[in-house]
Design goal:
This protein has 204 residues and is an alpha/beta fold. It folds into 2 domains: 6-106, Alpha/Beta hydrolase fold, catalytic domain (Rossmann fold), CATH 3.40.50.1820; 117-200, no CATH class. It has 8 helices and 5 strands. It has a 5-stranded mixed sheet with strand order 1-3-2-4-5. α2 crosses α3 (84-95) and α5 crosses α6 (153-172). The chain is globular. The termini are far apart.
Length: 204
């Protein structure tokens, strides 16, 4: 059984789409018809998002993706990663450059970026909500923060679905350990958001 849920659409050169950290593979619905006209499009739900359950033990997003690509017969692929998906895509390219035909990063997360005061305030508020067990409020906070007032109802719906998984997983997973790549793309996707990661990287 494959570790992550996915779908494949179209034919031609492969294009792998990795969703943002507050969404799931449905975020690519508007772009899918156009991309699939000339590509075999592979959309994934990372662990804890969409139809991919969050396991109780540490895992590795990159290994999950490589396992999937091998199973569906993809040797090389163009990779598109958005936000947190961009961070996963960077790690995928670093560890398996022979698998990457092209790399497109959309507003990617990066361990090199310093959080500003607004983002720190968001993390603090979210941490309070998660510690209190108010996952619904934490989900709403994520939707309001990352969508903004101009987002369509469809975008809000996808983001709310993705954010609820983020909230559940972050509430249930604590104490990141090991080296940075494992924590960012292994111990759980919440590591990208967490202040524990920033402290371990020497960031303020």
């Amino acid at each position: 059984m494959l570790p992550i849920s996915h779908d494949v659409t179209g034919s031609g050169p492969s294009a792998l789409l990795i969703h943002a950290g507050v969404a799931d593979r449905r975020m690519w619905d508007p772009q899918l018809p156009a991309i699939a006209r000339g590509h075999r499009v592979v959309r994934v739900d990372l662990r804890g998002f969409g139809d991919s359950p969050l396991p109780p033990d540490p895992y590795d997003h990159v290994t999950d993706i490589i396992t999937l690509l091998e199973d569906i017969g993809v040797d090389r692929t163009a990779v598109v990663g958005a936000s947190f998906g961009g961070l996963v895509a960077q790690e995928l390219a670093r560890r398996h450059p022979e698998r990457i035909e092209r790399l497109l990063l959309l507003c990617p997360a990066s361990v090199l970026l310093r959080p500003d005061d607004e983002l720190k305030a968001f993390w603090s508020r979210e941490e309070v909500l998660l510690e209190s067990g108010d996952l619904a409020a934490a989900t709403t906070l994520n939707v309001d923060t990352w969508c903004g007032p101009e987002a369509s109802s469809a975008i809000v719906g996808v983001t709310r679905g993705g954010s609820s998984y983020v909230a559940r997983s972050r509430a249930g997973v604590r104490g990141w350990g090991g080296d940075l790549p494992r924590r960012v793309c292994g111990a759980g996707h919440a590591a990208w958001f967490g202040r524990a990661r920033l402290r371990s990287c020497g960031r303020p």
